[in-house]
């Protein structure tokens, strides 16, 4: 049986963390699988809640980082930690319930025929809820922008609900990743595609966070705008 670990990056998620961890415990085989909380020194005490849960629940581990650097560096730290373990499948997802824990088994099941499974908002059956027009435009426009520039068929390149088979994650040069925001999601998927590995999209409903503040900023959008053409150029030069 595959050993499954979920990477759960947190920054000021005290209102969501415990509920999310317990919801994940209900869909995982906790005698074998686990949740890795990666906390970027949240000033609201999220890290302390994570430590308490790790004492109470043997399938929860915590990785404390010294400062907030963005989603990319947090995931890289988590990936390195889990690749040093016996993890066979590694998932990434948000802690704010915008990704439904009940969808985790569907992503896991899809790895029977794929090396990387994406929870997709933009395939048939997927979608978003409680988003304004601007947020929809930025998200969908960003995906189309990346899809066209990178010349790939994946419809949701910026989503952060993903399940990697170990081999797919090992195929990514983690040292070469420098994006701090959602460009990180584009680049990891693109690098797996460049390795000619199988990528499959599974429809999900993305729901705006129920508590806490959104981490989306203008700088995150700007980073993706210039990172995508640079990524394509590097691929054309044989550097990806």
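Sequence proposed for the structure above (240 residues):
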């Amino acid at each position: 049986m595959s050993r499954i670990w979920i990477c759960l990056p947190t920054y000021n998620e005290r209102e969501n963390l415990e509920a999310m961890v317990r919801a994940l415990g209900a869909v995982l085989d906790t005698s074998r699988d686990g949740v890795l909380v990666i906390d970027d020194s949240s000033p609201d005490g999220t890290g302390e809640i994570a430590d308490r849960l790790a004492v109470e629940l043997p399938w929860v581990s915590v990785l404390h980082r010294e400062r907030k650097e963005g989603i990319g560096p947090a995931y890289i730290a988590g990936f390195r930690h889990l690749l040093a373990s016996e993890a066979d499948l590694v998932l990434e997802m948000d802690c704010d319930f915008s990704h439904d824990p009940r969808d985790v088994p569907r992503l896991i099941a899809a790895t029977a025929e794929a090396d990387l499974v994406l929870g997709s908002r933009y395939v048939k059956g997927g979608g978003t809820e409680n988003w304004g027009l601007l947020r929809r435009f930025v998200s969908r426009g960003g995906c189309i922008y990346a899809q066209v520039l990178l010349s790939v068929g994946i419809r949701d390149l910026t989503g952060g609900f993903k399940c990697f088979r170990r081999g797919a994650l090992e195929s990514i040069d983690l040292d070469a990743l420098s994006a701090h925001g959602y460009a990180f999601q584009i680049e990891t998927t693109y690098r797996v595609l460049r390795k000619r590995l199988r990528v499959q999209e599974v429809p999900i409903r993305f729901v705006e966070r129920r508590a806490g503040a959104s981490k989306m900023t203008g700088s995150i959008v700007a980073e993706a705008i210039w990172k995508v053409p640079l990524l394509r150029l590097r691929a054309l030069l044989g550097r990806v």
